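step: validate -> pass
step: tokenize input -> pass
step: predict -> running
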Amino acid sequence: MSTTTAGIIFLATLVAVLAVTHVPLGDYMYRAYTGTTHFRVERAIYRLIGADPGAEQSWGGYARSALAFSAIGIVFLFGFQLVQGSCRWP
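step: predict -> pass
step: emit ->
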């Protein structure tokens, strides 16, 4: 099979999968983003981290969250790179 044929088959499959799943996925996303009720696990996590799910986030809070997430990601990436150097593969 040539790469052109494989690409066409891939695109046709992707379009077919999107056509089949767009309505159920769209309905789920609508309920998830506009719903006011939360699952028990979500409520437990909100309580654990001290977040109010009904409150708007200020730009300062968003900036702190983005910086903290980036810093944690950098620390984990650095750790992975350190461990990668010590792993010996046969």
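step: describe -> The chain has two domains: 1-54, 56-90.
step: cleanup -> pass
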